[in-house]
Design goal:
Strand content: 15-25%
CATH topology of the largest domain: Rossmann fold
Largest sheet: 5 strands, mixed
Helix content: 40-55%
CATH architecture of the largest domain: 3-Layer(aba) Sandwich
Structural class: alpha+beta
Low-confidence stretches: 306-314, 378-385, 455-466, 518-528
Number of domains: 4
Mean pLDDT: 77
Distance between the termini: 82 Å
Radius of gyration: 33 Å
Number of strands: 21
Strand order of the largest sheet: 2-1-3-4-5
Number of helices: 15
CATH superfamily of the largest domain: Resolvase, N-terminal catalytic domain
Amino acid sequence: MPQGSYLIYLRKSRADLEAEQRGEGETLSRHQRALLDLARRLDLPVSGIYREIVSGETISARPVMQKLLAEVEAGQWDGVLVMEVERLARGDTIDQGVVARAFRSSGTRIVTPAKTYDPGNEYDEEYFEFGLFMSRREYKTINRRLQRGREASVREGKYVGSGAPYGYRRQKLERDKGFSLTADLEEAEVVRLIFALYTAGERRADGSVERLGPAAIAKRLDALHVPPRRGREWSPATVRDMLSNPVYTGKLRWNWRRTVPRREDGRTAASRPRSADCLLTDGLHAPIVPQAVFDAAQARLARKNAAPAAGTAAAKNPLAGLVVCGRCGRRMQRRPYGNGRPPALICPAPGCGNVGAELALVEARVLEALEGWLGGYRLDWDSAAPSAAGEQRRALARMDRELAALEVQRERLHDLLERGVYGEDTFWERRRSLAARARQLQADRDALAEALDGERGCQALPSPPPDLPELYRQLPSPGAKNRLLREVLEKAVYTKDASGRWGHPDAFTLRLYPRLPRLTDSGAVQKN
């Protein structure tokens, strides 16, 4: 065999992972020893060893393989040592063709313990291509069996993800295969707080109530020094994903974001779009958030992207986009009149027989109906309504622990200086850094303690404000009033048969469809 420069390529497969779990040793180390022994027997000079830790089906998902192919095409290697040809490509026929063409065009040999493939030999080339084809077939069979097993586990209520969602920890099932989820007590309180701030809101110092969005909740968690699972700060996207994740109600969602391959600029890429066609089943784990609260969060998320009424109508009509004609289904519009006549609410459809009414009368009827409905509304928090004040107290405890840890580090600096581990420059630099961190943390703690002592912290409400009509009347503009109504009202269907504005100004019917879920006496969730 001609001598030259050879490369060893190592990559794990799913079978290797299973073998490691059985205690057969680390795969890449075993394969490296075997290929180095093969190189010594064949007297092949090895100039490099490439390790592929990332498991991927396509070449685009394997950066080390991309580097190898670029060097092979450039003629940098005379041969590549690999355990089997299947380690080079298990993707589709396009990826297999890319690998075969790279080795064929450069004349690079493929050396395995079973056989050496010479791309210049017609029979070796056919054998190599057949091996790639069979490896692809084997991969699809294994993957299909693996996916069926995962789906079966999900249907049994088992958690098959590699990492548990925030608020939970993975727990091995006793006397059974697989895992379930168990609540992390501290993180579970944070999850409840997130849902409370989003669905019920917080009461401000002036008595007003505001429901926070994902961005505001992320800032609030950072201000409370609540550590996220990854990174240093909370992101709105993380909060939004948590609000829409049914795992917190004791459910499991499977195939929610399937990997979809696509071709971009001649290369295979992958995306993970959200899918409405997913498996939703009951999990073995206990819920963190009541179903009614989760439904309220989904209702608000669903209308987040709803377009507000446009133009001047949004600024002048507090009922813009909310009142629907009971005859034709059109959105009713505000019509201004001159000569001192008050504006009316009418159906814009030509020929519709629904009679309009004064906007102020319809507005008053909406508030009256909402006031009666909100009087019977309640959210069941299982006698454990979360509060931001409680999370503030936990944040204070975390800050105290961090300050104590910083003090221990500061004391250790002197020991390291005396032992000669740190020089004087390093000692003073570390001391200044620790002092700055301690000052900032102490300032944050003092501010948080002051807010908690003065009861200026946020207070999560267990239910919507019962004085909504009063709050509505205090709002400064029709646009602000419209935004408040959109939070609690999906639509109102208006119908009036009596014509003429004299004698029957309020002879109309109005049917309201509130957005928030309501609990019946039996505990069932229903929507009006």
